[in-house]
Predict the 3D structure of the following.
Amino acid sequence: MITAYSFGASTAAGSMDDEGGFIARLDLYLRDTSAGTAVNHGAGGDTTTMMLVRLADIVRQMKARPDPLALVTLGINDVPRIVDERPEIRVGLSQHGESLKEILAALGGIGGVIYLTQYPVDYEARSLDPELVKSYVRLGEDTARSAGVEVIDIFGMVTPERFAEFIFEDGLHFNARGHQFILNNIIRTLYKR
């Protein structure tokens, strides 16, 4: 019996999805198959700096449950915008890597961890430099792999066609089909373990 935890920003929280995102779907799947439960610890808008503040509480909760598994989904809140209304919350690239390293070490010290890469967004609408976003994505994936953490490369799998199908009209969040896609990839990964 596993207890899966989503940890990260709006995608981890299931924002913009009436069914609660991939984590609510995973909870239903695990309960239906008598394989465990899933708990939502995503928080929309969180940067890795904000996640570090919550980390000790998540670790404490995971320690109290059988066979904990963290699903880390950061989002892109760390990435500076070209025109930025909230520059004070952004996290520089090197600090992003260090924060992720700390998150993965803490969660990996008590259970399994799967890292889901950030994903493409409507860069122009969200005032983001695509190359800068890709540098955060690459660093996150490299950091996770260096820590021995299994990676689901959502960024690499979301083609332009899938982007049109999976991303909500705001150009930033996954819709119901997108969350189902994430769930399917998590389930495939669990079966390979």
Remarks:
- DSSP finds eight helices and five strands in the chain.
- The mean pLDDT is 94.
